[in-house]
Write a structure and sequence with these properties.
alpha/beta; eight-stranded mixed sheet; 12 helices; binds adenosine-5'-diphosphate; binds magnesium ion
């Protein structure tokens, strides 16, 4: 079985650190030599756009889903080994887009990159539920606050209904001195605790600097935790400890100078027209619709 390479980064509550996790997990994987695409599926927002220099007529995921552009047109190089597909900001265009087309976008990116991370919006709607079932696994992001943990249950439920799997929990903005037991929180959700990301003022500063935290302050507590998360998910050897004996190719040390750049990976010559290999695609849209209907009727 091939290992998981497409992750949805999701949460029940907004503002808990999904975009921070997507950008920094992605960059940490890229620093370890993996080729990574991060995708802003939060169609109503434009979070990742902060890391890409876009002009009003730049091509975005919106244009791809509207059938007006190719995935490559909406792919922007962030740094070595990592590209972003920003969502775009034109709310008026939103009605014209087809979230179902996301399946094709993911399938194409999957064939080009080692890892694809989908930054998913919070809440219950078609574009938040679809990626939960599309990904190989969902990384659930939450702060330790009761309201956020409670909302996480909804996302776990929606993921199951969308036919997806939750890989585990990433607790963000944790306070080392707190008396909350983080493993207990994960236990209560019946999830594996993948990592805790401590509160770190550099997280916000890095956003203003337009630089991912793991590059902005690589030895800070949050950046270090994001590198551990990357190692855990990818089975990369880190600090001499292998998380996964089956770790695949390309486990060079960090700070390598891999000759394959993200630009190469995103270049037109790599567009080989691979067709989607998944056989169970046709029913997914129905699954998503019924998952949304069921979730809404719960309230
Ligand atoms: P989401 O994408 O879930 O809405 P963000 O990643 O945008 O959340 O994070 C929300 C806010 O929290 C941002 O201002 C971000 O800089 C801040 N933040 C995220 N992670 C941390 C952290 N570990 N320490 C301190 N602030 C953080
Ligand atoms: Mg976000």
């Amino acid at each position: 079985m091939s290992h998981e390479t497409v992750y949805s980064i999701a949460s029940g509550k907004g503002g808990v650190g999904k975009t921070t996790t997507t950008v920094n997990l992605g960059t940490a994987l890229a620093q370890a030599g993996k080729r990574v695409a991060i995708v802003d599926v939060d169609l109503g927002m434009a979070n990742l756009a902060g890391f890409v220099s876009l002009t009003p007529d730049s091509t975005t995921l919106h244009d791809v889903l509207a059938g007006n552009a190719s995935v490559e047109d909406a792919t922007y190089r962030l740094a070595e080994n990592i590209v972003a597909v920003p969502s775009g900001i034109g709310l008026d265009e939103y009605a014209e887009t087809s979230p179902e087309g996301l399946r094709e976008v993911v399938s194409e990116l999957r064939s080009t990159y080692d890892y694809v991370l989908l930054d998913v919006g919070a809440g219950i709607s078609h574009e938040t539920v679809l990626p939960l079932g599309l990904a190989d696994a969902v990384v659930l992001v939450s702060t330790p606050e009761p309201a956020a943990i409670q909302d996480s249950r909804k996302t776990i439920e929606l993921t199951a209904r969308a036919g997806g799997t939750v890989a585990g929990l990433v607790l963000t903005r944790t306070h080392p001195g707190s008396d909350i037991s983080h493993p207990d929180l994960a236990d209560r959700l019946d999830l594996q605790l993948l990592e805790t990301i401590p509160e770190d003022s550099a997280a916000r500063e890095s956003v203003y600097a337009g630089t991912p935290l793991v590059a902005y302050e690589p030895n800070g507590p949050a950046a270090t935790a994001y590198r551990h998360l990357a190692a855990e998910l990818a089975g990369i050897e880190l600090d001499g400890t292998a998380d996964d004996p089956d770790a695949d190719d390309n486990t060079d040390d960090n700070d390598n100078t891999d000759t394959t750049t993200a630009e190469d990976a995103a270049g037109s010559e790599t567009e080989d027209g691979n067709s989607p290999e998944s056989a169970d695609e046709t029913s997914a849209t129905d699954d998503v619709s019924s998952a949304i209907t069921e979730a809404e009727s719960d309230h």
